[in-house]
Write a structure and sequence with these properties.
By secondary structure, this protein is of the alpha+beta class. It contains 18 helices and nine strands. It has a seven-stranded antiparallel sheet.
C-alpha cells in the first residue's frame, strides 16, 4: 500500500539498538498506575482475576460507561496487561515505540528530499525525541503506550495515506482498507483525533475544498472513529460533574486571609516559560529554528520548499490545533502536548536535514552519528538502571503497605539519579495522583508512602503555624489535620490519598505572603490518627514558613 523507501545498513543497525533500549526499559518498569488500576477494576467488576472472553466483553461495556470511549482502554489495555508478563509485554510495546521513531525518521527524510533515510537521520530523530518528548508522562506503562505511542505511529501512517488519496493513488480494496484503518485511528484517542481533524480541515480549506472523493471518504471515516470515542457517556458525565463542582465552589464563601498578600516572587512570564519548557520544549525549538531560518535566504528557500509538501501543511495545521487545545483544555497536562510534539518532531527533523542538505562531510557525519547513538544509548542504560532500582523499591513498599494494618509506609524514597536520563524517567509513583488513586481503588485502607521522619509525628512535638490553614511544621516538613480529599473535585468510590492545594504562605524575612501549591498526602500515624503530609510542588523550603492561610482560589 505504501511504497518502500531505501534504508542504509547503519539505519537498520540503529533500529536494532533502539529496539533493544526500549525492550530493556519497558521490562524493568513496575506494574503501577493505570495498568494496575485496569487489573483491579477488571477483577472487581467481573469477580475474577482470570482473563476470559466474556469478562473482556463485559469490561468493554463497563469501561464505556465509567472510563472513556478510547479503543485502547476499551479493548486493548486490560487483556494486554493480564495476558503478557513484563518481558513478553516489553518486546511487544518496544515495537510500537521503535516504530514511532523509525516512521518519524522516514517521513522527515522524505519531506526533506533525501534519497534515503540514513543512520544519521535516525540518530538525530532518536536523540531529539529522547530529549524533548514527554516520556516522563508514564509512557512506559502499557496503558500509556497503547494510548499515546501506538496512536502516534498510526497517525503518522494515516497522514501518509490521506496524501496518497489526494494524489488518487489509492483505489479499490486499498482504499477500503484505508477507510477501515481510518476508523481505528480516529477511535484511538480523542486528543489525537481532534487535533488531526483540525489539521485536516485547515488543509482542505487551504486547497479550497478541492480534494478527491477518496480523501473525503477517508476523512469522514476517521471522523466516525472520533465520534465513537466521544460517544462514551462518561466523557460528558465528567464534564457535567466538573462544571457542577465549579459552580458549587464559586458559591462557597472564601476564607478571609490573615496574611497580607504580596506579589509572587516568581514573575508570571517566568512561570509560563517554565510550564512551556516542561510540556512542549520541542515546539519551542521548532518555532525558534523556523524563525531563524526565515531570517536568511537559504532558510527561507528551505521553508518554502518544505511548505509545498502536503504532509508539512497537515502536520503544521495539526500542531497549531493541538497547541490551541492545550491552551484551552489542560495547560498543566503534558499528555495533551504529546501528539503535537510528535508531529512537530517530523517538521523539526525535516527542516534540519533540508538545511543540512548533504553539506556535512562524511568524515564528520559518521563519527557524529556513532557518538549520538552511544550517547543516547547510555542515557537509556542510566534510565533503565534507575527504573530497575525503583522497581525493587516499589515492590518492597507494596509488600510493606499490604502488611501494614493502616496502609501507611514510612520510608524515604530513592533520589533521582545523578547520571543523565533526559526526560525518560516517569513521575515518582508514590508522588503521583494517578498511581495513588489506582493503588487505593477497591481498598479498605489508604495506602501511601511518606518520609520516615513522620513515623513518630505528634502535634505536641510540632510547631503550629499562625493563620487559618492550621498547618504545622515537623522536622522540616509540613503537616495538616486530616480531611477527606477529593480527586479533581469529584467524589470517588475510594478514599483518595492525595490532592493539590493552594496556600498563602509567609516566609521568614518576607513582609507578606504569596500563594504556593502543595500536594497533600493522607497518612496514618503510629497512634492510629490520620494526618496530611504536605509536599511543596515548586520546591520552597518548608522550614522557612512562618504562617499559612487557605487560599481563596480553592473555593
Amino acid at each position: 500500500m505504501l511504497e518502500k523507501f531505501p534504508t542504509s545498513a547503519g539505519y537498520r543497525a540503529g533500529i536494532l539498538l533502539i529496539y533493544g533500549c526500549f525492550v530493556a526499559i519497558y521490562w524493568v518498569t513496575p506494574l503501577y498506575g493505570d495498568d494496575l488500576c485496569f487489573i483491579k477494576d477488571y477483577a472487581a467488576h467481573t469477580g475474577s482475576s482470570q482473563l476470559t472472553f466474556r469478562g473482556v466483553c463485559d469490561f468493554f461495556v463497563y469501561n464505556w460507561h465509567t472510563e472513556n470511549g478510547r479503543l485502547p482502554n476499551l479493548l486493548f489495555v486490560t487483556p494486554f496487561v493480564m495476558a503478557f508478563g513484563r518481558l513478553a509485554g516489553a518486546f511487544i510495546l518496544a515495537i510500537f515505540a521503535t516504530g514511532m521513531v523509525a516512521e518519524t525518521a522516514l517521513l522527515s527524510a522524505r519531506i526533506a528530499g533525501r534519497p534515503r533515510v540514513s543512520a544519521a537521520h535516525l540518530a538525530f530523530v532518536w536523540a531529539v525525541s529522547t530529549a524533548t518528548i514527554s516520556w516522563f508522562n508514564n509512557c512506559f506503562l502499557a496503558s500509556h503506550t497503547l494510548n499515546y505511542i501506538l496512536p502516534t505511529w498510526m497517525m503518522l501512517w494515516f497522514v501518509r495515506l490521506v496524501i496518497l488519496t489526494s494524489e488518487r493513488r489509492l483505489v479499490g480494496w486499498r482504499l477500503a482498507l484505508t477507510a477501515v484503518f481510518a476508523i481505528l485511528c480516529g477511535w484511538m484517542h480523542e486528543g489525537c483525533s481532534a487535533m488531526l481533524l483540525g489539521g485536516l480541515g485547515l488543509w482542505i480549506i487551504s486547497r479550497k475544498f478541492r480534494v478527491p472523493a477518496a480523501t473525503w471518504l477517508v476523512v469522514a471515516t476517521f471522523f466516525i472513529g472520533f465520534v465513537l470515542t466521544m460517544s462514551s457517556p462518561m466523557i460528558w458525565m465528567r464534564v457535567s460533574l466538573e462544571n457542577r463542582a465549579l459552580v458549587e465552589a464559586s458559591a462557597a464563601t472564601p476564607p478571609v486571609a490573615t496574611i497580607p498578600l504580596t506579589s509572587n516572587p516568581v514573575p508570571a512570564h517566568l512561570r509560563i516559560w517554565r510550564l512551556l519548557w516542561r510540556v512542549m520544549p520541542l515546539l519551542i525549538f521548532l518555532a525558534a529554528s523556523t524563525g531563524v531560518a526565515l531570517c536568511f535566504r537559504r532558510g527561507r528557500d528551505a521553508v518554502k520548499v518544505l511548505w509545498q509538501n502536503p504532509y508539512t501543511r497537515i502536520a503544521a495545521f495539526s500542531v497549531l490545533t493541538g497547541v490551541a487545545m492545550w491552551t484551552v483544555l489542560a495547560r498543566h497536562n503534558p499528555g495533551v502536548t504529546w501528539y503535537p510534539q510528535a508531529l512537530g518532531l517530523v517538521l523539526f527533523s525535516s527542516l534540519a536535514f533540508r538545511l543540512a542538505g548533504g553539506r556535512i562531510p562524511a568524515k564528520v557525519l559518521k563519527p557524529a552519528t556513532v557518538l549520538t547513538f552511544v550517547a543516547i544509548g547510555t542515557v537509556f542504560v542510566n534510565a533503565t538502571v534507575w527504573m530497575s532500582k525503583k522497581n525493587i523499591e516499589f515492590q518492597e513498599i507494596m509488600a510493606e503497605a499490604q502488611a501494614s494494618p493502616t496502609g501507611t509506609v514510612f520510608r524515604d524514597l530513592l533520589p533521582k539519579p545523578h547520571t543523565p536520563t533526559l526526560r525518560l524517567l516517569p513521575e515518582e509513583a508514590w508522588r503521583s495522583n494517578m498511581h495513588l488513586f489506582a493503588i487505593n481503588s477497591h481498598e479498605t485502607k489508604v495506602i501511601n508512602a511518606v518520609p520516615a521522619a513522620l513515623r513518630d509525628f505528634s502535634p505536641a512535638k510540632a510547631r503550629h503555624l499562625p493563620g487559618n490553614a492550621s498547618l504545622m511544621t515537623y522536622k522540616g516538613m509540613i503537616v495538616a489535620p486530616y480531611s477527606k480529599l477529593k480527586y479533581d473535585r469529584i467524589e470517588l468510590p475510594c478514599e483518595v490519598p492525595t490532592d493539590y492545594f493552594d496556600y498563602i504562605l509567609a516566609f521568614d524575612g518576607d513582609e507578606g505572603g504569596f500563594p504556593q501549591l502543595t500536594t497533600r498526602y493522607v497518612f496514618t500515624a503510629t497512634d492510629g490518627t490520620r494526618w496530611l503530609y504536605l509536599e511543596p510542588v515548586f520546591g520552597f523550603d518548608p522550614s522557612r514558613v512562618i504562617a499559612a492561610d487557605i487560599s481563596p482560589t480553592n473555593f
